[in-house]
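Incident log, structure service

09:12 report received: a user says their structure output differs between two submissions of the same chain.
09:20 pulled the input from the user's history:
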Amino acid sequence: MNANQLFFTSPGELEIRPIQLKAPGAAELLVANRLSAISAGTEMLIYRGHAPQGMAIDATLPALRGLLRYPLGYGYASVGQVLEVGPGVDPLWRGRRVFAYQPHASHFLAQVDQVQPLPDDLADEDAVFIPNLETAVSLVQDGRPVLGEAVVVFGQGIVGLLVTQLLSRMALGALVALERYPLRRLASLELGPTACLDPSAPDLSAQLTQVLPTGRSDLTYELSGDPSAVDQAIAITGFSGRVVLGSWYGTQPSQIDLGGEFHRSRIQIVSSQVSTISPELSGRWTKPRRLQVVLQLLPQIAPRRWITHSIDFADAPQAYRLLDHQPETTLQVVLRYAGADG
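09:34 re-ran on a clean worker, output below:
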């Protein structure tokens, strides 16, 4: 059948191109997309030309096999409806709503075991946040917050907001978010942190002294996507604290000053990435188990409130220009597909 897919063709350039999909094969589903979410982190690195060319896109997701190289189809948050099933597939799949880690496209083929059927009472607009909430759960697990600790979260984009939301449910000594854009600070404050501060404020150190019990954090998350924030994250972390790096900087250089107090402070820097489970947890935790936690949390969190822009798939280039030039006006931008009624 005829379909359309979004391709990154060069830095700052996008095209919606026709593609031809074959009939679904054994164990395959043909899915009509309803809604897909744009990642303001990884996708904007690709859009701006900051993704390492020739690196594997994502070896853990079948729909994203291959290399980071233009022209590139990308995206990993699609909610669609099954149109056709392949030979041997239970016909009850037909008509079901599913989530899939698939690039932005009007239709796609997916293996049955690569989609997640969605409950009837879960809105498309919440389900499309599955990857971001999965990332947030992974980040919290990797940081291992301890009862009574002071935690600081750099960046209140969608992942930062979700991490702040999860942490706000814990009995922490303090929870402080840092975000430069007022719109995102307002969204963060609704989650109940101790404070949400502007990291560029000249008196930030004094403000942190007032809201953190010891003036330093025990656990710091860097989720802003800004390489320069790493130094700042280390600087506000106390003796033997942890700094969890959840941002991916792509080809943007990150110059870290490790020549000052860092060496004597025994600070741990932890790399956290959702594609794998931390080795310390993998004996008991699997991706399916983590996904079930996400599905349980989604209705409680209702992240659809953070969708600031819903743009027709045909106008997708406009969505990326918005994120590139006016990020301060956005939280989550989604693409809506013709015929979707969600």
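09:41 both user submissions now match this output. Likely a transient worker issue. Closing.
09:42 reviewer note: The domain at 132-271 is CATH 3.40.50.720 (Rossmann fold). The chain has two domains: 2-118+302-336, 132-271.
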